[in-house]
Amino acid sequence: MLLSTLLLVPLLGCLALLLWPGSPRPQRLRVITIVILGLQLLVSLLTLANFDPQQAGFQLVEQHPWLPGVGLEYSLGVDGISLPLVLINSALTLVAAVITRDIDRRPRIYFAMLLLISGAVNGAFLACNLLLFFLFYELELIPLWLLISVWGGVNRSYAATKFLIFTAISGMLILGAFLGLAVLTGSSDFTLTPVLSDRLEIGGQLLLLGALLIGFGIKIPLVPLHNWLPDAHTQASTPVSVLLAGVLLKLGTYGLLRFGLGLFPEAWARLAPALAIWAAISVLYGSLAAIAQTDMKRMVAYSSVGHMGYVLLAAAAATPVSLLGAVFQMVSHGLISALLFLLVGIVYRKTGTRDLEILRGLLNPEKGLPLTGSLMIVAVMASAGLPGMAGFISEFLVFRGSLNAFPLATLLSMVGSGLTAVYFLLLVNRAFFGRLAITAPTGDQMIDARLDVRLAPVAPRETVPALALVAGVLGLGLLPAGLGRLSEMATTALAFSGRGLG
Amino acid sequence: MNLASDLPLTLQTVWLIPLYGFSGMLLSLPWATGWIKRNGPRPAAYLNLLVTLFAVLHGSLAIREVYAIGPQLFTIHWFQAADLNLSIGFDLSLVNLAALELVTTMSLVCQVFSLGYLDKEWSLARFYALVGFFEGAMSGVVLSSNLFISYFLLEMLTLSTYLLVGFWYAQPLVVTAARDAFLTKRVGDVLLLMGVVALSAMAGSMEFNDLYAWAGTAREQHLITPLVDTLLGLGLIAGPMGKCAQFPMHLWLDEAMEGPNPASILRNSVVVTCGAIVLMKLMPIVALSPLATTVLLGVGCVSAIGGALVALAQVDLKRAFSYSTTSYMGLVFIAIALQMPGIALLFLFAHGLARALQFMSVGSIIATTNCQDLTELGGLGSRMPATALAFLVGGAGLLGLLPLGCFWCYGLMVSNLLAIAPGYAVVFLLTNLLTAVNVTRVFRSVFLGSPMPKTRRAPEVIFWMALPMVSLAVMVLLLPWIMRLIDPVPGIGAFPLSVTLVLVGSGSAGVLIGCLLPQDRFWSRSSRPALRILQDLLANDFYTQSIYRATIVQPVRSIAVATRWFDLHVVKGVVDGIGRLSLATAEGLKLSVSGQLQSYVLTLLAGIFLLLGLLQWLRTGS
User: What is the pTM of this model?
Assistant: First the structure.
């Protein structure tokens, strides 16, 4: 019942918010949402407490037939791969709700959509039935489309439509692969069973896996399917970006691990060398494109493209260490990119621009944003993989696990990790070091020297979530053993499932 | 923890030593972030001094215990998954503990010095927080018994160097200096990480002792191909090269002189020492690859002579000596590459102390005159006698001339090298000569001659700067005695009289040349073309910065811009194109639709048949 509660709390909350009597003020709606999300976080923590990390398979399973005719079954379960992601989802949706401000248009729908997304994502992570997963995967799409197209920036309709089309194609491919599985194996049993490959010719496997790869590759996103992401991020508001980068991209990598590697281990092993190269290209492409960006948010978006490539590399290698690294990378990317988007959002809010050619000296202790700047330094260092923070241990595990299998792709990905330092250092050096200014230099030194700005202090509702995320990043970086224990059995089982040992 | 509980308490709690520094950082935070504003930031400084004092005392107690019961290993499991086992390990040998004492003592001395140097600095607390972080990371590096934790802490050093160099972040030069410091070291670190990951995957364990054993087996049984061991060796030396500011990764150290001077003291004496110690621990693995060893020797020689030459042409007081640091680390690299770790360690000790003293006296001059331009300094000798004396002692401690620290190291090295590789002995002697020239010319220019406008009314430094400076001078003077205690066999003076004569000869020749160099107040460029080209070449550090800009920065930037262009015009263009195409076809198709239901049904049915046929074919055919 615990897992159903994880779905019911946000979904019923969403319903309650929509049906709330009268016309409550946005402030009040926000508080209600935060309470519901707090409850959701509590339930996730309760799930964590009831979870036994020593077991490899699904736990706390709930099964009820729904539409037996088509093979749809309401079956939920949690294992060491999905549990960390459920926790991240609960935490980051809460963060997104806390940092939300100034929703002047239809606040009720806005908060309801946040809750709906959170519930749908929980459902997708917990689903043990392919069709159920697909339902939740699609369910999350519409609210996100609304969040971008209603509460986004100037060019929001373009970005939202692009997002919708890309993700719809992704959904179609995934559904196609799932249905194709049923047709090719001749059974309409969509239960998530680890090895189906013995019932399937390798050609069919490759075809279905290819559809899944492109479908999830759009969601992750992998180069060259990433084009929707930078636009979606730049047009989305800060909380939506936090959700999008922190949680929704993980659906893609989760799907890759669970359905790509999990269902088609044989075909996966065949494609793995190509996947590793694809991962390296994605990493390098994302990093190089990020170097040339001048919009802070776009830069962070491209860094996401690069960093999600590590997960594909780890999945391609599919060793126990690398898969554990993939889980680590998903969690740490969730925390770090959420933090980065949050901080970029603060800068945008206070200065009105994200242009790196204009912003300078934001670290200024009296008139600038010293705390935001300091946290930004922590965030970029974490993203660049400095030890002591979450990014390092994740990347170390990924690289260590993948090196023997794919030396070249791993080394190239490590170069990408070095490039991360380049663009993020440029970001910090340009925007935060130097003399404070938030207007373009005029070229006249006398005028430039007289520029005087005083930025308003940042409200606790933004600094407190940022500090909490920093604590998470440092905590995971300094004490990774907890997450390791949580996921190790599941990732090891997944790594061995394809080799007939599990 | 696999430490027997019957060990003395000082050793059981040895994991505290790096934590003292880190706790200093945490203790400074309330003042650094401005939560506590009353009474100024001084309490943060005092708290840091206190914890550093604890670290020094704890370290010296540990030395005494280890002296009595022998070296100990100390391990805490940190992370374990599948075949990967990462642990925090400390190797409590006398050598490591002595290095620890060097680090903590230097940190303590430096922090006292900063009380005076940064007297009016409003963000004093932030400085102390960073120094605490710095000290913690360095203490860990010198004690660490495994490669993973060494790498972990080396990266933390990179981060804290970045933050310390960027301490005055509002100044334009600092912005580029911090960037270069971070990126240069980061390049080395990423290469080192490649080596670390590869070693972890190949050898399994990360403990240095296990790695040595693995290296031995690998050599005997040819476990790895020559290509792999060469790449591995090159990756492993890249990290220390960046840390020790060796050619061609030396650029950052001279730019880092934009940071506050007390941080420069630490950087030039102990941070580079940490890098060299890590290299020393890695050397048995690097030695697997003859090419990597050769590269190491080459880098050492180029750095030693190149650094000493470039130092000669600098007009900035701090830079003149930071290049000399590069030069001395080059010598240490040669010693390490030739498998003489004992002498390399002695060299590091002697160099670290003397260099710190030298930079302290430089800091005194800068604090008093607010000037670090050699052309604007002069006649300080009579006005700042203590500083002049410290400068002389520091300089002498670095040279192979008077029987202070480095003299004995030079002697040992040269006498050993004469037997196996006389060429390197010449490198040592030449470096000694060039360094002597540099020290002498700077001394003449700063302390002798007639006073300049900025030095005419210069007073001696205040107590908080004089105290550490004089104490350190005494330490440098006593160093030969301490060295004899550390290294009793075969004795630090175990080299023949002829070597002594050659050494003293090279040193005095350098001093003589330094005295005879024409002292040009304005250091104008020479009118003779040949000399001018040489002068420009050295003053611009062999144009390293421009070379980097042309060979690395510009290509990376071009590729990045090209990628961005590709992304905008090709990837996005295709996507938008498909969108436009579908709109256009829809526009066209709408004209061909008749509106009859039959045609829709037909299209639909045809599609379904095609799909089913395809699936059926796949199911049976393949």
Answer: 0.93
